[in-house]
């Protein structure tokens, strides 16, 4: 396979940043009352501001997912590329605007670029990296000379209070903590937000500016041995089996919160570091000769700063003790944007002016759905 370079970076964040005190007024009060979890969860996750595709005054949506994605892709032109010359498009998201057709097709329609393949990758946090992987392999194989990969989320659409109205009507408020909906759904409202990122992949590096060579990229899933941890659109039965929403009476699905995003926090805390960092990275260190002294930047996606120390400790256990001065994240001020987070970090780091030729970057993207993970190694050229 031939070398592939990232030569342009785009980002799109909707509206103005929303601070912790304002966020519930924007996404709404479930059951008409403030959540007793908000302060507790925000103290734990360390996020101070984020972005929502919601007008803070009218509470009307200002962007669709496809619109925000198209904006990020158009912003690639600020780095000197012409999106009309795009040869392939791969768009990853876990929050598409519709069940079908694919998110990439809706984005392509807004861009007005035709006669190209447009592939949608979905899932959870890893959806952006799998789109990137498709674009990388498309160029590396020689099939195309360039490709665009994007990742985007409009989590506000599934975290807005109206999403939980039926469930709140059917739920007796817990007298101990005052929750109008189940904990595993409410706490995610204070974790997730909106954003989109895009990258331009080319068979040739830039001659006038720095490029990032993709040395390797790997995605790995442990779904064959791990149970469901994070999901939306299915019911987990008492025996551990699952039933998808099309097989459920629609009223039952609505009343039981099947369409709400939810996560098994105990399972997450017990397994996320081992299965998405320690276990896969130990093998990749051997495969690629990866060591701490050969890393200049670590870009970790994590949902919460709560996991930062645990991530650092996990890497130390496998002999990858990277000095914390080399870590780069924008979680605290851009929020947890799920699959978009890795591209938003790359875009910010590239445009910060901090990178120099020869710098080596490791990107890490864990996903809790059924414990999948992905890594990319880049060199600045």
UniProtKB/TrEMBL annotation:
CDD domains membership:
init_cond_enzymes (cd00827)
Q: Where would you find the membrane-spanning parts of this chain?
A: none
Q: Which InterPro entries match?
A: ACP_syn_III_C (IPR013747), Thiolase-like (IPR016039)
Domain of life according to the entry: Bacteria
Q: Which Pfam families match?
A: ACP_syn_III_C (PF08541)
Q: Which UniProt keywords apply?
A: Acyltransferase, Transferase
GO:BP terms for this protein? secondary metabolite biosynthetic process
User: Can the keyword Transferase be found in this entry's annotation?
Assistant: yes
Q: Which GO terms describe its molecular function?
A: acyltransferase activity
What residues does the Beta-ketoacyl-[acyl-carrier-protein] synthase III C-terminal domain cover? Answer: 287-364
Q: Which PANTHER family match?
A: 3-OXOACYL-[ACYL-CARRIER-PROTEIN] SYNTHASE 3, ACYL-COA:ACYL-COA ALKYLTRANSFERASE
What NCBIfam families does this protein's entry cite? PRK06816.1
Q: What is this protein called?
A: Beta-ketoacyl-ACP synthase III
Q: State the organism named in the record.
A: Mycobacterium vicinigordonae
State the organism's lineage.
Bacteria, Bacillati, Actinomycetota, Actinomycetes, Mycobacteriales
């Amino acid at each position: 396979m031939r070398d592939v370079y990232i030569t342009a970076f785009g980002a799109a964040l909707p509206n103005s940043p929303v601070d912790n005190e304002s966020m519930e007024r924007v996404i709404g009060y479930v059951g008409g009352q403030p959540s007793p979890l908000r302060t507790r969860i925000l103290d734990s996750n360390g996020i101070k501001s984020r972005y929502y595709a919601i007008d803070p005054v009218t509470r009307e949506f200002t962007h669709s997912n496809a619109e925000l994605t198209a904006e990020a892709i158009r912003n690639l032109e600020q780095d000197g590329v012409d999106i009309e010359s795009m040869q392939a498009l791969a768009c990853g998201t876990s929050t598409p605007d519709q069940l079908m057709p694919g998110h990439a097709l809706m984005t392509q329609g807004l861009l007005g670029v035709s006669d190209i393949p447009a592939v949608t990758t979905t899932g959870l946090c890893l959806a952006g990296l799998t789109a990137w992987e498709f674009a990388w392999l498309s160029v590396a194989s020689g099939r195309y000379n360039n490709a665009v990969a994007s990742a985007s989320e409009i989590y506000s659409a599934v975290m807005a209070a109206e999403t939980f109205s039926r469930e709140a009507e059917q739920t007796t408020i817990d007298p101990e903590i005052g929750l109008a909906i189940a904990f595993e759904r409410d706490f995610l409202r204070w974790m997730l937000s909106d954003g989109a990122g895009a990258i331009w992949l080319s068979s040739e590096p830039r001659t006038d500016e720095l490029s990032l060579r993709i040395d390797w990229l790997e995605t790995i899933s442990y779904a064959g041995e791990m149970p469901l941890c994070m999901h939306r659109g299915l019911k987990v039965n008492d025996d551990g089996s699952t039933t998808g929403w099309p097989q459920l009476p629609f009223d039952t699905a609505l009343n039981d919160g099947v369409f709400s995003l939810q996560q098994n926090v105990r399972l997450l805390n017990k397994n996320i570091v081992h299965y998405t960092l320690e276990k896969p990275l130990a093998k990749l260190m051997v495969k690629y000769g990866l060591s701490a002294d050969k890393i200049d930047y670590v870009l970790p996606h994590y949902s919460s700063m709560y996991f930062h120390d645990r991530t650092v400790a996990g890497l130390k256990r496998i002999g990858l003790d990277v000095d914390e001065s080399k870590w780069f994240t924008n979680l605290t001020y851009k929020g947890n944007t799920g699959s978009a987070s890795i591209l938003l970090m790359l875009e910010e780091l590239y445009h910060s002016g901090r990178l120099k030729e020869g710098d080596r970057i490791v990107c890490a993207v864990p996903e809790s759905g059924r414990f999948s993970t992905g890594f990319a190694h880049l060199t600045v050229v």
